[in-house]
From TrEMBL:
InterPro entries: START-like_dom_sf. It comes from the Bacteria. This is Ligand-binding SRPBCC domain-containing protein. It comes from Spirosoma sordidisoli.
Amino acid sequence: MHIILETVVQAALPDVWSGFDRKLFDQLSPPFPPVEVVRFDGCLRGDVVLLRLNFLVFRQDWESLITDQQTTTNEIYFIDEGVRLPFFLRYWRHRHRLVRHESGGTVVIDDITFRTPFRLLDYLMYPLLWAQFAYRKPIYKRVFKA
């Protein structure tokens, strides 16, 4: 399954890139499930992010590896891929794209590909994951003002 969400923010591309840090990551965590950040190396190739999701009666670890990061004049992106995923996911690839906007701002693009153990579950998870990432849009706008 594939999810793409775009958010235009007022800040310039270099400012948005420098703001993709642990502080922003903490703000982007949705209210449910509560997320504990066990490890956050950053957004460069080889960095690791380890999260612990708390579903109240059980916990699941989610470990991702930053497998690529590129910078050009008009775009900066990094890709995190799931190494150890919660039971309801079998595959995870999230390309975080920051693209220079003609207004002088930046377009933040969450480009996500995922699979669950069952095709039907893919369709059931799609609106839940979409909502989890749509939750980020007002946060991006608030954090990245000109």
